[in-house]
């Protein structure tokens, strides 16, 4: 999914530079099938858009889906507003582009997600091409300028190790050596296009809570899978959801790092014993 997504973005490297503000445009309703921008806060968009797309059904709608994987990672709270201001610009009396400062904020948070999958920030989204703050443009919201600073956040990392049928001591040592330990069902589905989709299914249960927050942990692990697609592809098998024990730490910069994964099968008595012993275990 990530490769297809990024190649599609890289293919629009030139239209933004070629877009003529003086050309004739028209306003159309944002179609229901354009789900990426359907709930962006306005109902009509201008064509051609800022990426040079003029055919709604043939270009705009299918190309808008190329951005969905990036938006699903939650890399920045205004990523949707930024991208939709280019894909589906609001239909007003004047052109409203994103401000350079908004581009920089989104790029600084979302470019590492692309880099994690081996791809650069698209040239079409070079922030120097957008207007400065003093011009009429879409600016970043102040309340999002330092979003979620106190919450652990997923980040790109080297893939954690995975061990089948571990010894009880191995599991207990992993609990001791890391900030947190949880159990979670990870599911890898096959989409119609043949692309895998990863999700955390059901509740996440704490063995060692550490700095994690109960209401945020399932979403945190879900974002980790979406950002670290290569790791997810290597670690999570297709088919039925598999229960895992996951251990990890929260780094000084607030990023979450998974370090050990243990698939928990019914026959793995050592994991069951380790989780029971942990309540009375001293590291």
Automatic annotation (TrEMBL):
Limits of the FZ domain: 22-140
Positions of the NTR domain: 159-283
Protein name (record): Sizzled
SUPFAM superfamilies associated with the record: Frizzled cysteine-rich domain
Sorted UniProt keywords: Developmental protein, Differentiation, Disulfide bond, Secreted, Signal, Wnt signaling pathway
Taxonomic lineage from the root: Eukaryota, Metazoa, Chordata, Craniata, Vertebrata
Species of provenance: Scomber scombrus (Atlantic mackerel)
Stretch forming the signal peptide: 1-18
UniProt cross-references to Pfam families, sorted A to Z: Fz (PF01392)
Main location: secreted
Record-level Gene Ontology MF annotations: Wnt-protein binding
Disulfide bonding pattern of the chain: 103-127
A biological process term (GO) from this entry: non-canonical Wnt signaling pathway
Family: Belongs to the secreted frizzled-related protein (sFRP) family.
Subcellular location: Secreted
InterPro entries per the UniProt record, alphabetical: Frizzled/SFRP (IPR015526), Frizzled_dom (IPR020067), Frizzled_dom_sf (IPR036790), Netrin_domain (IPR001134)
GO CC terms in record: extracellular space
């Amino acid at each position: 999914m990530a490769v297809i997504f990024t190649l599609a973005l890289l293919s629009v490297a030139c239209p933004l530079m070629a877009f003529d503000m003086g050309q004739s445009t028209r306003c159309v309703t944002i179609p229901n099938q354009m789900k990426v921008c359907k709930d962006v806060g306005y109902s009509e968009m201008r064509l051609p858009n800022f990426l040079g797309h003029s055919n709604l059904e043939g270009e705009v709608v299918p190309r808008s889906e190329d951005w969905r994987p990036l938006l699903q990672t939650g890399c920045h709270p205004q990523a949707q507003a930024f991208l939709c201001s280019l894909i589906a610009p609001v239909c007003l009396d004047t052109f409203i582009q994103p401000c350079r400062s908004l581009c920089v904020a989104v790029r600084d948070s979302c470019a590492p997600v692309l880099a994690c999958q081996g791809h650069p920030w698209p040239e079409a989204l070079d922030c120097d091409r957008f207007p400065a703050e003093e011009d009429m443009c879409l600016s970043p919201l102040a309340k999002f300028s330092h979003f979620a600073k106190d919450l652990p956040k997923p980040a790109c990392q080297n893939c954690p190790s995975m061990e089948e049928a571990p010894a009880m001591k191995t599991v207990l040592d992993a609990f001791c050596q890391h900030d947190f330990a949880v159990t979670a069902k990870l599911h890898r589905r096959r989409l119609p296009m043949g692309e895998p989709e990863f999700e955390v299914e059901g509740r996440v249960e704490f063995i060692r809570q550490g700095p994690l927050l109960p209401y945020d942990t399932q979403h945190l692990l879900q974002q980790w899978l979406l950002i670290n697609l290569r790791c997810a592809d290597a670690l999570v098998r297709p088919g039925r959801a598999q229960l895992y024990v996951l251990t990890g730490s929260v780094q000084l910069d607030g990023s979450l790092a998974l370090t050990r994964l243990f698939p928990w099968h019914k026959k793995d008595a050592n994991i069951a014993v380790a989780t029971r012993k942990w309540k009375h275990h001293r590291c």
